[in-house]
User: Fold this.
Amino acid sequence: MNICIVGTGYVGLVSAACFAEMGNHVWCVDVNPDVIKTLKEGKIHIFEPGLEDLVKRNYEDQRLFFTTSLKDGLDKARFVFITVGTPCSSDGSCDLRFVENVAREIGQTMTDSKIIVDKSTVPVGTADKVRSIVKAELEKRGLDLEFDVASNPEFLKEGDAVSDFMKPDRVVVGTEKKETCKEFETLYAPYARSREKLIFMGTRSAEMTKYAANCMLATKISFINEMASICELVGANVREVRLGIGSDHRIGYYFIYPGVGYGGSCFPKDVKALINTAKEVGARPELIEAVDSVNNRQKKMLSRKILDYFEPQGGVRGKTLAIWGLAFKANTDDMRESSALSIISELTEAGMKIKAFDPVAHIKAEEILRDNDLVEIVHNQYEVLEGANAVAVVTDWNQFRNPDFDKIKEALLAPVIFDGRNLYDPSYLGSNGFAYFSVGRRP
Ligand code: UGA
Assistant:
């Protein structure tokens, strides 16, 4: 099949490479000439395990093409996927400017029948909006071309995006047209091998499904974080409680790991956007508002513990904290809405110096934090500890899971660990002379 993908960000590039890998011909369009140039050199501008090889191979085999011209991309394509950014406006609503611009351009450029697909996360009703924009542009040109606008939300996780695309739990397609369903069946047959994995529904339900899924997952995380806070106060251990509740099939073990709160480009934005949509239509989204506020509190949980610990020692001013992990989770260089940024901002405001290490996000971190004189990015996991008063583990990178505790002790001024991901065993650290603070477990 011939496919055009507009927007070579995270979702766009992963989808393009994975569609090409199954033999489709895919044209990737991006307005940024630098991005297209980099892609043509066989390099990618985002960090995602396995993606660079996939892009390079399919580009060399001429199944993947890169262009800045929407016309070139559209010409042969039957499917046109819109995968441009949908940033959050200051009021929490979703900014659709880029999606609308692409829709306008498609209407101004297309010369034959197309299936236009919204793949970016967009508010309910966007497919209808895109349809009217394309129709209006076609009318201006005096054309009456057949087209459909479908919704096919993406459920990729950063760090696992390629395998999530290749072996999806489900593929959701929203369309009102039977013929469109058939073409989607052909497109997704190599990925959604069993029929149950391909779920067809109305466009508005598909758009809502994406928000409902992310809000459900965010709710699980805020729920377990709230349980963790209560566990600490009543003397229970949240790790044990997680095992106890997760064994019930109706609850499950996944996405109930307590931590430093959820970050990234999806959950915080999507929870806020659904709150906004709900209010616009007169609903009272009390539960997801609470999910959002529990998360805001949780992002400050570790810095609160650090401030409380140093309070009797004259406070944090002039002291140094080493941080392990800046990305919002492991296996990504993404620092958007990362809890590390909230922790750094709160502690440097109180005068604490920060030395931070992240195996992958260090380059982005240097850029993002360059105006904060109290922050230094260090490129070695153990050197970052030298002369620090304590270390805080913020991202769950594998290389932090089983570290050399003797080396940690030697490098730090005092053996103090604040663990935002519950990576270590409190009794082991206690018996080895560490002061150890984690989430939902008493020191
Ligand atoms: C999320 C969803 O998991 C994907 O299904 C969805 O497609 C994607 O958003 C999107 O909307 O595009 P992602 O943001 O990549 O994916 O990251 P997750 O792995 O879901 O983690 C989100 C945050 O929750 C991270 O900060 C992570 O550390 C935190 N988390 C996750 C926890 O604190 N506890 C958990 O048990 C799980």
